[in-house]
């Protein structure tokens, strides 16, 4: 239906486009200033893109399901988890004590980057036995030696949270 007004009160199309572009730049700039870090880029700490669960590959070891990023992350993590189950300890406790993909969440204490679980590139194994962030020394020296040897044999492509000095995380393994 035609307008009954002879003059439009809207700015010109060109001006509206410039305002939209400037407003978008302001939003992106504010996100960076406020510490969105990798959130603005949509990546986790290791640089992999954040994914939804629907974008992951589902696989199982010893009846426990995992969801990881398709391709190399799934290949590496499946190899390691299968080996861990056979050579370190079974991962059959269940009760949600084995984690893989999770909704993207910022990592404390800085909240500047997203967890690698959000990109499907990390797993936590047997949390009921090995605690979580802040826990170290929960594996026997023999188990720890085997884990280090396996990770070395995989070319260092997986990192063990149990080796972190600032905030150890014994059950955590992630793709580099």
TrEMBL record:
Domain of life: Bacteria
Molecular function via GO: peptidase activity
Domain Peptidase M15C: 112-175
Family annotation (InterPro entries): Peptidase_M15C, Zn_M74/Hedgehog-like
Annotated protein name in UniProt: Peptidase M15C domain-containing protein
């Amino acid at each position: 239906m035609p307008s009954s007004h002879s003059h439009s009160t809207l700015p010109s199309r060109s001006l509206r486009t410039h305002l939209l572009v400037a407003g978008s730049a302001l939003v992106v700039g504010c996100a960076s200033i406020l510490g969105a870090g990798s959130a603005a880029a949509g990546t986790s700490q290791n640089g992999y893109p954040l994914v939804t669960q629907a974008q992951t590959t589902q696989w199982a070891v010893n009846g426990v399901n995992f969801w990881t990023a398709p391709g190399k992350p799934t290949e590496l993590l499946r190899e390691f988890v299968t080996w861990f189950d056979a050579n370190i300890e079974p991962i059959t406790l269940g009760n949600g004590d084995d984690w893989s993909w999770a909704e993207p969440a910022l990592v404390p204490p800085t909240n500047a980057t997203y967890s690698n679980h959000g990109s499907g590139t990390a797993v936590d194994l047997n949390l009921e036995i090995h605690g979580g962030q802040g826990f170290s020394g929960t594996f026997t020296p023999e188990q720890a030696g085997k884990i280090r040897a396996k990770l070395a044999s995989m070319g260092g492509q997986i990192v063990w949270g149990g080796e972190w000095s600032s905030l150890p995380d014994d059950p955590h393994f992630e793709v580099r």
